[in-house]
Amino acid sequence: MRHVIALDVGGTGMKAALVGASGELLHQARRATGRERGPDAVVEGILGFAADLRAYGAEHLGEPASAAGVAVPGIVDAEHGIAAYAANLGWRDVPLRALLTERLGGVPVALGHDVRTGGLAEGRIGAGRGADRFLFVPLGTGIAGAIGIAGRVEAGAHGFAGEIGHIVVRPGGTPCPCGQHGCLERYASAAAVSEAWAAACGDPDADAADCAKAVRSGDPRAVQVWQNAVDALADGLVTALTLLDPRTLIIGGGLAEAGETLFTPLRDAVRRRITFQKLPTIVPAALGDTAGCLGAGLLAWDLLDTTDRTEVTP
Question: In the chain, which ranges are continuous DSSP H helix?
Answer without folding.
Answer: 39-60, 96-103, 114-125, 185-188, 190-201, 208-216, 220-244, 260-273, 291-312
